[in-house]
Amino acid sequence: MSTPLEQKALLALRQYSLFTQGDRIAVGVSGGADSVALLRFLAALREEYRWELIVCHIHHGLRGAEADRDEQFVRELAGKLGLPYAVRHIDAAALALENHLSVEEAGRDARYAFFAETAGEGGRIATAHTLDDTIETVLMNLVRGTGLHGLCGIPRTRGNIARPLLDVTRAEVEEYLALLGQPYCTDSTNLSDDYTRNRIRHDILPRLCELNPNFTGAMARMLPQLAAQWALTERLAESAAQQLQGAACGGALDRQGLLALPEPVCDRLLLRLLERQGLPRSAAVLARMKKTLRTGGKLDVAERAWYFIAEGGWAALSYQPPGGIPPALVPFPLPQKAVTLPFGQQKRIKLTLCNKIVAKQSEKFNISLLKNEVDCDKIIGNSVLRTRRPGDRIRTAKAGKPLPLGEAWAAAGIPAPLRPALAVLADDSGVLWAEGLGCDFRAAVTEKTGQYVIIECQEE
Which of 38, 76, 203, 368 is most deeply buried (CB count within 10 A of its CB)? Predict the structure, then answer.
């Protein structure tokens, strides 16, 4: 392979193991120069690597006859290359209105959903982002305000998505297509300054290149360095999270340990608390969280339902909506083998019905190992999944006597402000099971247990 595009893309394939032999790859093709070049490059290698390529095109319902032209062009190109073709028509403007997104965001979400569906389980997705795209993305993030992650550009891989042309410039794409004699479509909206990206592409980037004719090359050298620093911060944050994990549930972290971390690592851990729950992140929210971490207290971070709490020796994000979490009836016997019920925000409780426990005769039956199992025959009357109520008591396998639920949680090291969001399974006689503690002694499984239910808390 002789062109810069072929050399750089092939090096990326091998260096980063973007695809493997025999992969099924959904290739996103708009009809523009970048995606057409990607398709031609991958098609030239498909026999050598035994890839199953599927050409994917999405019609956004935005540009009338021009969009129809693009669809026809991509269909014909797929036919000439002997490749299967998949197309989907959407109304991006309607999706944007329905989901409170920009038209660009709605279109992007729909594209990736379509690509993932076409690739199927175990399949891969190839998109045609180039070095120019990632530079434009970095400049957009810089204008809007960003941290280190936003300065790293477009990731080379994300999940099953790979971008083989990320080291290739737009000029090299056009050179490659010219040598092949391969035509492509031009999206008229790319020639307008209506969108932020286009203003950066047509106005700001040319001025930067006037200041430094090798600006693209300089960015190409800088971006991997920033990505490496971000990866290091991520590894340090992951290691710190494991060391600072506090309570058995609720995601509490050691407060003094957080304060002792290097500031970028502490920032990353705090932002990850928000990310895990899909909450909005900003420099302002991060600054308020850091102040609360230092001074102690309770900070409202989202719509009077999510709070960042720093108290004593711990810190955590807690879900405490006005009025609490409504109870959910749990039917026993369960209508099916596994039932998953919503509980608050981003949490699900899974109940799995199982048959009699059969232990080996050589093994001693140990109730403490079965703390999240409840004997179905010992459930009295109606059962409900709810939060704590006044008068709730529990006797766990380790406790000698029943304790108020708050005291039992305190003994387990679970901070008081996190307890309102913890799950309790109860029947007409009281608590059967409590999150972070396990089952009440009266509902514990024994050697004589017939059916029992396994209870699992799942964060989404």
Answer: 38
